[in-house]
Protein backbone atom coordinates (compact mmCIF):
# COMPACT_ATOMS: atom_id res chain seq x y z
CA UNK A 1 0.00 0.00 0.00
CA UNK A 2 1.25 3.49 -0.86
CA UNK A 3 1.30 5.71 2.23
CA UNK A 4 1.34 9.51 1.96
CA UNK A 5 2.37 11.24 5.17
CA UNK A 6 0.87 14.36 6.69
CA UNK A 7 -2.65 14.13 5.31
CA UNK A 8 -5.73 15.51 7.04
CA UNK A 9 -8.80 13.40 7.78
CA UNK A 10 -12.23 14.00 9.32
CA UNK A 11 -13.75 10.91 10.97
CA UNK A 12 -17.44 10.93 11.91
CA UNK A 13 -18.27 8.47 14.68
CA UNK A 14 -14.59 8.48 15.62
CA UNK A 15 -15.48 7.96 19.29
CA UNK A 16 -17.16 4.63 18.49
CA UNK A 17 -15.76 1.11 18.21
CA UNK A 18 -14.55 0.88 14.61
CA UNK A 19 -14.16 4.62 14.15
CA UNK A 20 -11.79 4.96 17.11
CA UNK A 21 -9.56 2.20 15.73
CA UNK A 22 -9.45 3.94 12.35
CA UNK A 23 -8.39 7.15 14.12
CA UNK A 24 -5.52 5.27 15.79
CA UNK A 25 -4.45 3.71 12.50
CA UNK A 26 -4.36 7.11 10.81
CA UNK A 27 -2.41 8.65 13.68
CA UNK A 28 0.08 5.77 13.59
CA UNK A 29 0.76 6.64 9.94
CA UNK A 30 1.52 10.26 10.79
CA UNK A 31 -1.72 11.89 9.67
CA UNK A 32 -3.75 14.68 11.26
CA UNK A 33 -7.18 13.52 12.39
CA UNK A 34 -10.29 15.35 13.56
CA UNK A 35 -13.26 13.53 15.08
CA UNK A 36 -16.95 14.49 14.81
CA UNK A 37 -19.29 12.58 17.13
CA UNK A 38 -22.48 13.27 19.09
CA UNK A 39 -21.45 10.72 21.78
CA UNK A 40 -24.85 9.01 21.69
CA UNK A 41 -23.07 5.65 21.51
CA UNK A 42 -19.41 6.68 21.37
CA UNK A 43 -17.12 7.69 24.22
CA UNK A 44 -15.15 10.90 24.59
CA UNK A 45 -12.38 8.91 26.30
CA UNK A 46 -11.95 6.88 23.09
CA UNK A 47 -10.65 9.97 21.29
CA UNK A 48 -6.86 10.22 21.78
CA UNK A 49 -5.28 13.30 23.28
CA UNK A 50 -4.27 15.85 20.69
CA UNK A 51 -7.08 14.93 18.29
CA UNK A 52 -9.46 17.81 17.59
CA UNK A 53 -12.95 16.81 18.71
CA UNK A 54 -16.22 18.33 17.45
CA UNK A 55 -19.24 17.44 19.60
CA UNK A 56 -21.74 17.70 16.76
CA UNK A 57 -24.83 15.75 15.73
CA UNK A 58 -24.92 15.08 11.98
CA UNK A 59 -28.68 15.56 12.01
CA UNK A 60 -27.86 19.28 12.32
CA UNK A 61 -26.87 20.17 8.77
CA UNK A 62 -25.56 23.65 9.50
CA UNK A 63 -23.34 22.42 12.34
CA UNK A 64 -22.10 19.61 10.12
CA UNK A 65 -21.38 22.02 7.28
CA UNK A 66 -19.49 24.32 9.64
CA UNK A 67 -17.10 21.51 10.59
CA UNK A 68 -16.62 20.26 7.04
CA UNK A 69 -15.94 23.82 5.84
CA UNK A 70 -12.89 23.88 8.11
CA UNK A 71 -11.12 21.66 5.53
CA UNK A 72 -8.95 21.08 3.41
CA UNK A 73 -9.76 17.41 4.07
CA UNK A 74 -7.86 14.78 2.12
CA UNK A 75 -10.76 12.47 2.91
CA UNK A 76 -13.79 12.19 5.17
CA UNK A 77 -14.58 8.81 6.73
CA UNK A 78 -18.15 8.20 7.91
CA UNK A 79 -18.79 5.76 10.76
CA UNK A 80 -21.52 7.56 12.71
CA UNK A 81 -24.73 5.51 12.75
CA UNK A 82 -27.17 3.64 14.94
CA UNK A 83 -26.43 0.02 14.19
CA UNK A 84 -28.43 -2.61 16.10
CA UNK A 85 -30.13 -4.88 13.59
CA UNK A 86 -32.70 -6.18 16.08
CA UNK A 87 -33.58 -2.71 17.28
CA UNK A 88 -34.05 -1.56 13.71
CA UNK A 89 -36.74 -4.22 13.24
CA UNK A 90 -38.62 -2.72 16.21
CA UNK A 91 -38.06 0.92 15.21
CA UNK A 92 -37.70 0.87 11.41
CA UNK A 93 -38.62 4.48 10.72
CA UNK A 94 -36.26 5.79 13.38
CA UNK A 95 -33.36 3.85 11.87
CA UNK A 96 -34.19 4.78 8.30
CA UNK A 97 -34.67 8.45 9.15
CA UNK A 98 -31.64 8.80 11.44
CA UNK A 99 -29.06 6.98 9.35
CA UNK A 100 -30.34 8.30 6.02
CA UNK A 101 -30.54 11.95 7.04
CA UNK A 102 -27.20 11.99 8.87
CA UNK A 103 -25.59 10.25 5.89
CA UNK A 104 -27.21 12.68 3.48
CA UNK A 105 -26.03 15.66 5.52
CA UNK A 106 -22.37 14.63 5.67
CA UNK A 107 -22.26 13.65 1.98
CA UNK A 108 -23.94 16.92 0.94
CA UNK A 109 -21.58 18.97 3.11
CA UNK A 110 -18.58 17.17 1.64
CA UNK A 111 -19.84 17.60 -1.93
CA UNK A 112 -20.44 21.32 -1.50
CA UNK A 113 -17.07 21.82 0.22
CA UNK A 114 -15.18 20.14 -2.61
CA UNK A 115 -14.02 17.08 -0.66
CA UNK A 116 -12.64 14.58 -3.18
CA UNK A 117 -12.61 11.31 -1.19
CA UNK A 118 -15.17 9.69 1.10
CA UNK A 119 -14.82 6.45 3.06
CA UNK A 120 -18.08 4.84 4.14
CA UNK A 121 -18.57 2.23 6.84
CA UNK A 122 -21.24 0.08 5.24
CA UNK A 123 -22.34 -3.39 6.33
CA UNK A 124 -22.79 -7.03 5.40
CA UNK A 125 -26.44 -6.51 6.41
CA UNK A 126 -26.96 -5.48 2.77
CA UNK A 127 -26.97 -9.18 1.92
CA UNK A 128 -30.12 -10.41 3.63
CA UNK A 129 -31.70 -12.36 0.81
CA UNK A 130 -32.53 -16.05 1.13
CA UNK A 131 -30.17 -17.09 -1.69
CA UNK A 132 -26.88 -15.74 -0.33
CA UNK A 133 -23.73 -17.30 -1.81
CA UNK A 134 -21.10 -18.77 0.50
CA UNK A 135 -18.81 -16.89 0.73
CA UNK A 136 -20.45 -13.55 -0.10
CA UNK A 137 -18.73 -11.39 -2.71
CA UNK A 138 -19.49 -7.94 -4.07
CA UNK A 139 -21.62 -9.36 -6.89
CA UNK A 140 -24.08 -10.98 -4.47
CA UNK A 141 -27.61 -9.62 -4.70
CA UNK A 142 -28.21 -6.64 -2.44
CA UNK A 143 -31.37 -7.36 -0.51
CA UNK A 144 -31.22 -5.83 2.97
CA UNK A 145 -32.80 -7.97 5.64
CA UNK A 146 -33.39 -5.15 8.11
CA UNK A 147 -34.10 -1.41 8.20
CA UNK A 148 -30.53 -0.95 9.43
CA UNK A 149 -29.16 -2.66 6.31
CA UNK A 150 -31.59 -0.70 4.15
CA UNK A 151 -30.39 2.59 5.64
CA UNK A 152 -26.79 1.76 4.78
CA UNK A 153 -27.75 0.87 1.21
CA UNK A 154 -29.55 4.18 0.86
CA UNK A 155 -26.33 5.98 1.78
CA UNK A 156 -24.44 3.95 -0.82
CA UNK A 157 -26.98 5.21 -3.35
CA UNK A 158 -26.48 8.80 -2.14
CA UNK A 159 -22.75 8.37 -2.73
CA UNK A 160 -23.34 7.17 -6.28
CA UNK A 161 -25.24 10.39 -7.03
CA UNK A 162 -22.58 12.49 -5.28
CA UNK A 163 -19.98 10.93 -7.56
CA UNK A 164 -22.10 11.58 -10.65
CA UNK A 165 -22.96 15.18 -9.76
CA UNK A 166 -19.91 16.39 -7.83
CA UNK A 167 -17.10 13.91 -8.54
CA UNK A 168 -16.96 12.78 -4.90
CA UNK A 169 -15.22 9.40 -5.05
CA UNK A 170 -16.20 6.91 -2.37
CA UNK A 171 -15.07 3.61 -0.90
CA UNK A 172 -17.95 1.62 0.62
CA UNK A 173 -16.67 -1.11 2.92
CA UNK A 174 -19.22 -3.79 3.72
CA UNK A 175 -17.64 -5.58 6.62
CA UNK A 176 -18.89 -8.53 8.56
CA UNK A 177 -18.27 -9.07 12.31
CA UNK A 178 -15.61 -6.65 13.53
CA UNK A 179 -14.16 -7.89 16.82
CA UNK A 180 -11.07 -7.64 18.99
CA UNK A 181 -9.31 -4.55 20.29
CA UNK A 182 -6.26 -2.41 19.55
CA UNK A 183 -3.25 -4.68 20.09
CA UNK A 184 -1.49 -1.94 22.11
CA UNK A 185 -4.50 -1.68 24.42
CA UNK A 186 -5.35 1.91 23.49
CA UNK A 187 -8.96 1.24 22.50
CA UNK A 188 -11.58 -1.46 22.82
CA UNK A 189 -15.22 -2.42 22.49
CA UNK A 190 -17.68 -0.73 24.83
CA UNK A 191 -21.28 -0.76 23.65
CA UNK A 192 -24.12 0.18 26.00
CA UNK A 193 -25.83 -2.26 25.96
CA UNK A 194 -23.36 -4.78 24.61
CA UNK A 195 -24.81 -7.06 21.93
CA UNK A 196 -21.73 -8.59 20.27
CA UNK A 197 -20.88 -12.21 20.96
CA UNK A 198 -17.14 -11.94 21.72
CA UNK A 199 -17.38 -9.33 24.52
CA UNK A 200 -20.51 -11.00 25.88
CA UNK A 201 -18.72 -14.35 26.09
CA UNK A 202 -15.71 -12.70 27.75
CA UNK A 203 -17.88 -10.99 30.35
CA UNK A 204 -19.66 -14.28 31.06
CA UNK A 205 -16.29 -15.97 31.56
CA UNK A 206 -15.21 -13.20 33.95
CA UNK A 207 -18.44 -13.52 35.95
CA UNK A 208 -19.62 -10.04 35.00
CA UNK A 209 -22.89 -11.16 33.46
CA UNK A 210 -25.28 -14.13 33.58
CA UNK A 211 -24.89 -17.19 31.38
CA UNK A 212 -24.41 -16.43 27.69
CA UNK A 213 -27.41 -17.14 25.48
CA UNK A 214 -26.79 -19.19 22.33
CA UNK A 215 -29.67 -18.44 19.98
CA UNK A 216 -30.26 -21.70 18.14
CA UNK A 217 -28.35 -24.97 18.49
CA UNK A 218 -30.04 -26.86 15.63
CA UNK A 219 -28.69 -25.06 12.55
CA UNK A 220 -27.34 -27.16 9.66
CA UNK A 221 -23.73 -26.39 10.64
CA UNK A 222 -20.85 -28.43 12.01
CA UNK A 223 -21.95 -27.98 15.65
CA UNK A 224 -25.53 -26.71 15.30
CA UNK A 225 -24.78 -23.05 16.06
CA UNK A 226 -24.54 -20.09 13.69
CA UNK A 227 -21.30 -19.47 11.82
CA UNK A 228 -20.01 -15.95 11.28
CA UNK A 229 -16.96 -14.28 9.76
CA UNK A 230 -15.01 -12.47 12.51
CA UNK A 231 -12.41 -9.95 11.38
CA UNK A 232 -10.09 -8.06 13.71
CA UNK A 233 -11.06 -4.41 14.11
CA UNK A 234 -7.46 -3.35 13.40
CA UNK A 235 -7.68 -5.17 10.07
CA UNK A 236 -10.97 -3.41 9.34
CA UNK A 237 -9.29 -0.07 10.07
CA UNK A 238 -6.41 -0.90 7.73
CA UNK A 239 -8.87 -1.89 5.00
CA UNK A 240 -10.44 1.58 5.10
CA UNK A 241 -7.06 3.23 4.64
CA UNK A 242 -6.10 0.88 1.82
CA UNK A 243 -9.42 1.51 0.06
CA UNK A 244 -8.87 5.27 0.06
CA UNK A 245 -5.80 4.74 -2.14
CA UNK A 246 -8.03 3.23 -4.83
CA UNK A 247 -10.43 6.12 -5.32
CA UNK A 248 -8.36 8.76 -7.08
CA UNK A 249 -10.43 8.29 -10.23
CA UNK A 250 -13.23 5.83 -9.37
CA UNK A 251 -15.53 4.76 -6.57
CA UNK A 252 -15.30 1.24 -5.14
CA UNK A 253 -17.24 -1.15 -2.91
CA UNK A 254 -15.49 -3.96 -1.06
CA UNK A 255 -16.61 -6.80 1.18
CA UNK A 256 -14.33 -7.07 4.22
CA UNK A 257 -13.90 -10.23 6.26
CA UNK A 258 -11.54 -12.90 7.44
CA UNK A 259 -12.69 -15.32 4.76
CA UNK A 260 -13.39 -18.07 7.27
CA UNK A 261 -16.28 -18.76 9.56
CA UNK A 262 -16.39 -19.53 13.27
CA UNK A 263 -19.40 -20.94 15.08
CA UNK A 264 -20.86 -19.59 18.30
CA UNK A 265 -19.53 -22.60 20.16
CA UNK A 266 -16.07 -22.07 18.67
CA UNK A 267 -16.16 -18.51 20.03
CA UNK A 268 -16.92 -19.93 23.47
CA UNK A 269 -14.06 -22.42 23.18
CA UNK A 270 -11.65 -19.68 22.14
CA UNK A 271 -12.65 -17.47 25.07
CA UNK A 272 -12.11 -20.41 27.41
CA UNK A 273 -8.64 -21.09 25.97
CA UNK A 274 -7.61 -17.45 26.19
CA UNK A 275 -9.10 -16.67 29.59
CA UNK A 276 -8.59 -20.00 31.36
CA UNK A 277 -12.19 -19.68 32.57
CA UNK A 278 -15.35 -21.55 31.69
CA UNK A 279 -18.02 -19.67 29.77
CA UNK A 280 -21.45 -20.43 31.25
CA UNK A 281 -24.06 -20.61 28.50
CA UNK A 282 -27.60 -21.75 27.90
CA UNK A 283 -29.56 -22.54 24.77
CA UNK A 284 -32.19 -20.10 23.58
CA UNK A 285 -34.60 -20.18 20.63
CA UNK A 286 -33.42 -19.04 17.21
CA UNK A 287 -33.78 -15.35 16.45
CA UNK A 288 -35.95 -14.53 13.48
CA UNK A 289 -33.92 -13.86 10.36
CA UNK A 290 -30.62 -15.26 11.63
CA UNK A 291 -28.99 -17.17 8.74
CA UNK A 292 -26.96 -20.28 9.48
CA UNK A 293 -23.75 -19.06 7.80
CA UNK A 294 -22.35 -15.64 6.82
CA UNK A 295 -18.80 -15.55 5.44
CA UNK A 296 -17.17 -12.79 3.38
CA UNK A 297 -15.30 -13.12 0.11
CA UNK A 298 -12.64 -10.39 0.39
CA UNK A 299 -10.57 -11.37 -2.63
CA UNK A 300 -11.42 -8.18 -4.54
CA UNK A 301 -9.87 -5.77 -2.02
CA UNK A 302 -6.94 -8.13 -1.55
CA UNK A 303 -6.30 -8.24 -5.29
CA UNK A 304 -6.73 -4.50 -5.87
CA UNK A 305 -5.01 -3.07 -2.78
CA UNK A 306 -2.81 -5.78 -1.29
CA UNK A 307 -4.81 -5.68 1.95
CA UNK A 308 -5.03 -8.93 3.89
CA UNK A 309 -6.01 -9.71 7.49
CA UNK A 310 -2.98 -9.71 9.81
CA UNK A 311 -4.88 -11.30 12.68
CA UNK A 312 -6.48 -14.30 11.00
CA UNK A 313 -6.59 -16.71 13.94
CA UNK A 314 -9.62 -16.59 16.17
CA UNK A 315 -7.56 -16.74 19.36
CA UNK A 316 -5.65 -13.62 18.25
CA UNK A 317 -8.90 -11.71 17.88
CA UNK A 318 -10.30 -12.97 21.18
CA UNK A 319 -7.04 -12.45 23.08
CA UNK A 320 -6.87 -8.76 22.19
CA UNK A 321 -10.50 -8.29 23.20
CA UNK A 322 -9.96 -10.19 26.45
CA UNK A 323 -6.93 -8.11 27.48
CA UNK A 324 -8.82 -4.84 26.98
CA UNK A 325 -12.00 -5.93 28.74
CA UNK A 326 -10.08 -7.42 31.68
CA UNK A 327 -8.13 -4.16 32.06
CA UNK A 328 -11.28 -2.03 31.67
CA UNK A 329 -14.10 -3.69 33.64
CA UNK A 330 -16.22 -0.56 33.19
CA UNK A 331 -15.15 0.11 29.61
CA UNK A 332 -14.37 3.74 28.98
CA UNK A 333 -16.03 4.55 32.32
CA UNK A 334 -12.85 3.51 34.15
TrEMBL record:
Its EC number is 5.1.3.2. Pathway: Carbohydrate metabolism; galactose metabolism. Residues 10-257 form the NAD-dependent epimerase/dehydratase domain. SUPFAM superfamilies: NAD(P)-binding Rossmann-fold domains (SSF51735). The keyword DNA-binding does not apply. It catalyses: UDP-alpha-D-glucose = UDP-alpha-D-galactose. It comes from the Bacteria. Keywords: Carbohydrate metabolism, Isomerase, NAD. It holds the Pfam family Epimerase. NCBIfam families: galE (TIGR01179). PANTHER family: UDP-ARABINOSE 4-EPIMERASE 1 (PTHR43725:SF53), UDP-GLUCOSE 4-EPIMERASE (PTHR43725). Homodimer. This is UDP-glucose 4-epimerase. It comes from Gluconobacter frateurii NRIC 0228. The lineage of its organism: Bacteria, Pseudomonadati, Pseudomonadota, Alphaproteobacteria, Acetobacterales.
Amino acid sequence: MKVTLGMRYLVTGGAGFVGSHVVLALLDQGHEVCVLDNLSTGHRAAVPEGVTFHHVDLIDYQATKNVVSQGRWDAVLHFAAISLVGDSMQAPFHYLRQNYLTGLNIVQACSEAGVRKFGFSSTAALFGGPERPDPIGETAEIQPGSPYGESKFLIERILQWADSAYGLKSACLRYFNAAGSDVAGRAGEDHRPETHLVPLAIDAALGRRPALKIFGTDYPTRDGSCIRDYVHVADVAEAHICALEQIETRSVAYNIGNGRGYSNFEIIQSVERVSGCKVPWKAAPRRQGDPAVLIADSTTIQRETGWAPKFEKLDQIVESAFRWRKAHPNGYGD
